[in-house]
Design brief:
The protein is α+β, with helices and mostly antiparallel strands. Helix content is about 55%, strand content about 10%. It has three domains: about 180 residues, no CATH class; about 130 residues, no CATH class; about 70 residues, Arc Repressor Mutant, subunit A. The strands form three sheets. It has a four-stranded mixed sheet with strand order 3-2-5-6, with helices on one face. A two-stranded antiparallel ribbon has the order 1-4. The radius of gyration is 25 Å and the shape is globular.
Length: about 400
């Protein structure tokens, strides 16, 4: 091997090492970052880890809040978003296009595991057909936890059954029972009924129930203050740090390699801060009306990726489990990305308007979905079908007009 070839191989190895450290650092929420750096310090004699609880003399949060954070950090589990993100790869998603669509679908999978997005709008955003986007969504049925990505409980149950091993006769009856949940009794004489019912009772509803039960304590990564100017601050109170110690002890090649790894990690931690800071600046700039009390405008991760010069998958990892706090509350970075209805109108604005209409409707004659659609069309000058209004109403957990009338009567 000549000198130039050896140098190229070494540079490639260094890049691979940095990449292996970089992605976990970027993706880790504050709850995990401290433990991640501590683990690196155990494995590297040149790293000194300083916990966020050791370097902070004072805190924005009171003692109970910090204790709650410590307790939740000790039991922090991988989020549903992270779990699914790590599985968006070959062989289920073998091409950049299929991965792009899957990433867009992932933005619309709620904490319970159900898909609540608009597949037609996703197809438009990803420049593909509705049919292809739908096939990508259904591939989520093969991801763990099984059942996620479904549009309702029946489809989720079918996804879960597909992942189980059972005799074909039992599987077919279990699928039939799921499709006809309202009339299960009529199948009780079937010779596989008891086995099939046992399996149906084991199915998770919602599919990501294990991820709902133990949510991590939310600590914002950034504070956004709007006054005469826009001020964005990193939450340094909970940011751990690392330093290089005893660099002159690196006397052999193995120790020099560890020293370089330690220096890379220090640089990558600063890069994480800088990357997330640029990301938040871009989000605040694009969604400034929201921070002033208005509505979210249409924004996609590909917009931000193009502006910052990153891959869309990198942006997706960067926003994972990151939060900012502003005057209006604490919000996940992911929530600032919303589909476009028109160039300057987001689905979020339509949903908020629908909620406002229902909140102020007459109790004796609640608005039907057709009437809501008419008001939305009139206000925004857009064409919309009733089923879209129905979908938004259900996403907002608003009962139908008939159900609301009964509730008003009882109240």
């Amino acid at each position: 091997m000549n000198h130039s070839t050896g140098l190229a191989v070494k540079q490639k190895q260094n890049m691979q090492l940095s990449l292996r450290m970089w992605l976990p650092l970027l993706q880790a929420p504050l709850q995990e970052l401290d433990a991640l750096l501590e683990q690196h310090s155990y494995e590297n004699p040149f790293l000194e880890h300083m916990s966020s609880f050791e370097i902070s003399d004072s805190s924005r949060y009171d003692g109970d809040t910090k204790r709650g954070f410590i307790e939740n950090t000790s039991t922090y589990k991988e989020s549903l978003y992270d779990k699914l993100l790590d599985q968006i790869c070959e062989p289920l998603f073998p091409t950049p296009k299929s991965q792009k669509i899957a990433l867009e679908i992932l933005q619309h999978i709620e904490n319970d595991g159900y898909f609540t997005g608009d597949i037609e709008q996703i197809a438009i955003e990803c420049n593909t057909t509705n049919e292809f986007a739908e096939t990508i969504r259904k591939r989520f049925g093969y991801l763990e936890p099984y059942g996620v990505g479904a549009i309702n409980n029946k489809e989720s149950f079918l996804f879960q059954l597909e992942a189980m091993e059972m005799p074909s006769g039992v599987y077919e009856l279990a699928c039939t029972l799921v499709k006809d949940l309202g009339h299960i009794d009529k199948y009780h004489k079937h010779h596989f009924f008891d086995e099939a019912m046992h399996i149906v009772k084991m199915l998770n509803h919602p599919p990501a129930i294990d991820y709902i039960e133990d949510e991590p304590y939310i600590i914002p990564d950034f504070f956004v203050e709007i006054d005469d100017d826009v001020v964005i601050k990193i939450n340094n109170e909970y940011y751990p740090d690392i330093e290089i110690k005893d660099p002159f002890l690196a006397k052999n090649s193995e120790l020099r390699s560890k020293l370089k790894e330690a220096k890379d990690l220090v640089s990558l931690l600063e890069l994480r801060k800088a990357t997330l800071y640029k990301l938040v600046i871009s989000i605040v700039d694009k969604q400034i009306k929201f921070f002033m009390g208005g509505e979210l405008r249409p924004l996609t991760m590909s917009d931000i990726a193009l502006e910052l010069g990153f891959e869309e998958s990198t942006i997706s990892r960067a926003v994972s489990n990151k939060y900012l706090q502003c005057e209006r509350g604490t919000f996940s970075l992911k929530s600032f990305f919303t589909n476009a209805i028109t160039h300057n109108l987001s689905s979020s604005e339509i949903k908020n308007y629908v909620k406002a209409l229902v909140d102020n409707e007459p109790h004796d004659t609640p608005l039907t979905d057709d009437e809501i659609m008419s008001k939305v069309t009139q206000k925004y000058g857009i064409s919309m079908v009733r089923r879209t209004i129905t979908k938004y109403r259900k996403l907002l957990d608003i009962p139908s007009s008939k159900e609301r009338k009964k509730l008003y009567t009882f109240s």
